[in-house]
Amino acid sequence: MTGFPDHLLKGYGSFMNGRYQAEEQRYRQLAREGQTPEVMVIACCDSRAAPETIFDTLPGEMFVVRNVANLVPPYQPDGDYHSTSAAIEFGVLGLKVKNVLVLGHGRCGGIKAALSPDAKPLEADDFIGKWMSLINPAAKAVAANGHMTNGERQTSLERISIRYSVANLRSFPYIAAREASGELQLHGAWFDISTGELWTLDPETGDFERP
Ligand SMILES: [Zn+2]
Q1: What pLDDT, on the 0 to 100 scale, is given for residue 122?
Q2: Helices (H), the chain
Q3: Contact indicator for 82, 76 with CB cutoff of 8 Å
Q4: How far is the CA of 29 from the centre of ligand 1 (A)?
Q5: For 27-82, how does the pLDDT look when each residue is reduced to its tens digit (9 = 90+)?
Q6: 111 Cα to the center of ligand 1, angstroms
Q7: Domain 36-209 belongs to what topology?
């Protein structure tokens, strides 16, 4: 028997009876007046690292784009399809968010793939390999470090890639301008899915610290 997954319908039922009922006025107001989130989050597709859950946010509070390994590509206005850049453009120029956060996480499958480029791609055209090649130079350097364990290499590249993505945000001219004028702040954070710890990026040192 095929069909719409039953557990999703059950979940929707409890959402309507619980959260939607509790926040009905808020939903109606958001529908009437539109969304005005102050925070944009760039997070991973990973099912264990949903930013709305981690930050316990209300509807309308956070503008979220999720992709494999929460990467921000460099500003590249060409003829290609750039879904992450399109979302950034809408969040910053359309919604005028005041904060953009790159949220990485532990045990990231995309980062793991970047550290083992010889692993068999899932399909011949290998979109994941192409996407993760954004961080190839760092991945190669970290993979070659014989002093680190696999776990240390993984965490290191997860954090390096967050710094890389924050730096790439600044390659968007309107982001650099808004950051310089104080209208926009850029942030990075790393979420440890096994312990629930959140580590935030220190903008001065580039280190990750417990807030
Ligand atoms: Zn991930």
Answers
A1: 86
A2: 6-17, 19-22, 24-33, 51-54, 83-89, 109-115, 127-132, 136-143, 150-169, 173-181
A3: yes
A4: 33
A5: 999 999 999 999 999 999 999 999 999 999 999 999 999 999 999 999 999 999 99
A6: 7
A7: Beta-carbonic Anhydrase; Chain A (3.40.1050)
How many whole angstroms separate alpha carbon 180 and alpha carbon 184? Answer: 8
Decide if 134 contacts 73 (C-beta within 8 A): yes
- Give this prediction's pTM: 0.95
Cα 123 to middle of ligand 1, angstroms: 19
Residue 140 CA to ligand 1 center (angstroms) comes to 18
Using the mean position of ligand 1's atoms as its centre, give its distance from the Cα of residue 66 in Å.
Answer: 10
Tell me the per-residue pLDDT of 158-208, one tens digit each, with 9 for 90 and over. 999 999 999 999 999 999 999 999 999 999 999 999 999 999 999 999 999
Question: What is the CA(106)–ligand 1 centre distance, in A?
Answer: 7
In the chain, where the domains are located: 1-34, 36-209
Instruction: Let me know: does 162 contact 189? Beta carbons within 8 Å.
Output: yes
Hunting for tokens 């350097």 — which residue is that?
141
